[in-house]
Amino acid sequence: MSVAEKSQKKSGGLGETFSVIIQALLLALIIRTLLFQPFSIPSGSMRPTLLEGDYLFVTKWAYGYSRYSLPFGPDLFSGRIWSSEPKRGDVVVFKFPPDPSVDYIKRVVGLPGDKIQVKDGQLFINDVGVPRVKTGQIDNPDVTEENRPIDVYRETLPNGVSYDTLDINSDSIGDNTREFVVPAGHYFMMGDNRDNSSDSRFAVGFVPAENLVGRANLIFFSIAGKASPLEIWKWPSLMRAGRLFHFVH
Questions:
Q1: CB distance 93 to 39 below 8 Å
Q2: How far apart are CA 63 and CA 83, in angstroms?
Q3: Range(s) of the domain holding residue 209
Q4: Which terminus of the chain has a smaller tally of CB atoms within 10 A, N or C?
Q5: Structural domain count, the chain
Q6: Helix %, strand %, coil % for the chain, to 5?
Q7: 31 within some domain
Q8: Which residues form the Peptidase S26 domain (predicted)?
C-alpha cells in the first residue's frame, strides 16, 4: 500500500469517527428535547416521595412542548404545542417563574380555576378538605434529616391520587394560608414535605403552563450522603438499592 493510500485510509477513518460522534450527539439531543431528560433532586422539599440524591427521568412529551423543552429555553415560540393538561397529583419539573434558569420539582394540587387554601395543615380544594390520615412516623435521618420521629400523613386528592406527606411542625408558617384562586393557564404546586418547601404558597406563586418541563417518571439511581454517583467506591455503603427503577407517584 502506498503512502497516499495509507493517508487516504487514515483520513477516511477519522471522518467516519467524527460522523458517528456527530450522529450520536444529535440523537442524544433529540432524546433529551423530545423524550426523556435526567434530573437530580437537590433538596428535601419532596420528601418522603423524593430524596436528595435521587436521579430520575422526566418525560418531556407528557404535557406537550414549550420553549423550556429546548436547551437554554430560546424564545422561539410562546405557549405550548401538542399540549396536554397535567393531572392533579402529578409530580412535575418546571421552571421557577421568577427565574426560569432554575428548575423546581413539586406536586400539582391546583388546576386552573381551583380555589386552594391550607387550614391547620389540611389542604382544601374548592372549599372541600382533602382527606388526610396519619399513617405513622418516620425515624430515618436519610429521609427526614431530623433527629426525631416525624409524622407521616396519607393525603388523597379528589381524583384518587394518594401520596405521603411529612409534618415536621404542627404550626408552621405554611399550615394556614389565604385562599388562592388559580388563574387560567396556571397551576398550584406544593411539596410533599409541607413544612420545608418553597412552593406556590410562597415565592413560587402560580406556575404558568409554559414553564412546565415534564412529568417525573422513574428513579434510575439514588445515593445518600450527598455523594456523587461517579464516586463508585461509595456505592456499597451509600447507594439506595431499594429506590432503583422506582416509579414516581
A1: yes
A2: 5
A3: 37-247
A4: N
A5: 1
A6: 20, 35, 45
A7: no
A8: 16-221
Cell of 80: 405550548
Phi-psi region of 69 (alpha: psi -120 to 50; beta: other; left: phi over 0): alpha
Three-state secondary-structure class, residue 209: helix
Which pLDDT band, with edges at 50, 70 and 90, does 147 fall under?
Answer: confident
Nearest residue to 53 (alpha-carbon basis) of 45, 38, 69, 42: 42
- List the catalytic residues: 45, 106
Name the grid cell of 41. Answer: 433532586
CATH of the domain at 228: 2.10.109.10
* Comparison of pLDDT for 224 and 32, the residue scoring more: 224
Pairing of strands 122-125, 115-119: antiparallel
d(CA 35, CA 159): 27
3-state SS, residue 158: coil
